[in-house]
Design a protein that fits this description.
By secondary structure, this protein is of the alpha+beta class. The chain has one domain (3-54, 62-70): 2-Layer Sandwich (Alpha-Beta Plaits), CATH 3.30.70.60. It is 23% helix and 50% strand. The chain has two helices and four strands. The longest helix has 11 residues, at 19-29.
Length: 84
């Protein structure tokens, strides 16, 4: 069983959502390789998270579900997946 590198896009509920609070919660829930903000539109910014997960059945599902539970997150989308 190998590992995969994943980039996830976390969309906040509104432009007023505290992204720093979201970033702190993400770091508590998963092992983060890198994290950045990406401008979306009309003042809205997404949080882009890079992480490494095991390449097994379900893949990124567990990580996505954990992150969806963070207050202020509207959606979590997988932007990129690469086998390491």
């Amino acid at each position: 069983m190998g590992k995969i590198g994943v980039i996830l896009k976390l969309m906040p509920e509104s432009p007023d959502t505290d992204l720093e609070k979201i970033k702190k919660e993400v770091k508590k829930l998963i092992d983060v390789s890198d994290m950045d903000e990406e401008k979306v539109a009309f003042g809205l910014k997404a949080v882009m998270v890079s992480t490494v997960v095991k390449d097994d059945e379900g893949g990124t599902d567990e990580v996505e579900e954990r992150l969806k539970g963070i207050e202020g997150i509207q959606s979590v989308d997988v932007e990129d997946v690469q086998k390491l």
